[in-house]
Design brief:
Largest sheet: 3 strands, antiparallel
Radius of gyration: 26 Å
Number of domains: 2
Helix content: 25-40%
Shape: elongated
Number of helices: 2
Oligomer: single chain
């Protein structure tokens, strides 16, 4: 009976994790370029030590690894804002990531709502500093009007005419996997990706998250029902165990 309870308990934990992942997807449904996660439930058998009679004792548990979906695109919507960029299918934007091991890691995102910070650096909507083709932050002249070409080149309109101030570092992100996704939605592979000279952007547009709020709400309801089913199964196993114990007492 304890094996049944163990399996139901791991199923309970898996359903709870599913709900957390889906709630995070729902919370980021309006974030440009966000990549949702899905939970792939799986059954596992844990082999215990060999018993004295030569039989194997095993317990079945429910696993719930979450997998990001970097290759699934969102919808591209026109905004008319010059600093908004939607990236082509395989293209990702390089930004400054977190400091890991005393070193600033390079991260990648599809979020293209760019702006100029108070320090004159180009950033995206997450506040991440955008990197140029030379892997350095892009500094923008104060108050200058900016335009972004399809190849990511950034021009500033100065009194003496347009001047190129940098070029977005765009990479081929087709090799990114769910394991590369950090907790804040940024993708952090072990090694920096090289610049992709063929990458293109569309100015005046943004890619939405690949999350549908309605679907996420339906998933939350299903996960709550699954949680309740596992909880009832644990109570049922407990009742069966108690009834068996009462029968044994009557036989005695």
């Amino acid at each position: 009976m304890d094996r049944l309870i163990y399996t139901a308990l791991t199923g309970l934990n898996a359903r709870a994790r599913e709900a957390v992942v889906t709630a995070n997807n729902l919370a980021n449904a309006s974030v440009p370029g966000f990549r949702r996660e899905i939970v792939a439930q799986e059954g596992r058998y844990l082999d215990a030590a060999r018993a004295a009679d030569g039989a194997w004792e095993a317990r079945a548990q429910v696993g719930s690894p979450s997998l990001a979906t970097p290759a699934v695109p969102g919808k591209v919507q026109a905004t008319g804002r010059g600093l908004d960029v939607a990236l082509s299918a395989r293209s990702w934007l390089a930004v400054q990531g977190p400091v890991i091991g005393g070193e600033v890691r390079q991260g990648y995102t599809r979020r293209g709502d760019l702006s100029v910070s108070s320090t004159g650096l180009l950033t995206n909507g997450d506040g991440r500093v955008v990197l140029g083709a030379n892997n350095a932050p892009i500094s923008v002249p104060p108050g200058a009007a900016l335009t972004i070409a399809q190849d990511g080149r950034i021009s500033a309109l100065l009194p003496d005419g347009p001047t190129e101030v940098g070029q977005l570092k765009l990479v081929d992100g087709s090799g990114l996997t769910g394991r590369d996704k950090a907790g804040d939605g940024l993708f952090l592979p072990e090694e920096p990706l090289p610049r992709d000279a063929t990458a293109r952007v569309e100015s005046g547009a943004l890619e939405s998250a690949n999350v549908t709020a309605t679907e996420a709400l339906v998933e939350l309801v299903e996960e709550q029902r699954g949680f309740e089913v596992n909880a009832r199964l644990i109570r049922l196993a407990q009742d069966m165990d108690e009834q068996g114990a009462r029968l044994m007492r009557l036989d005695g």
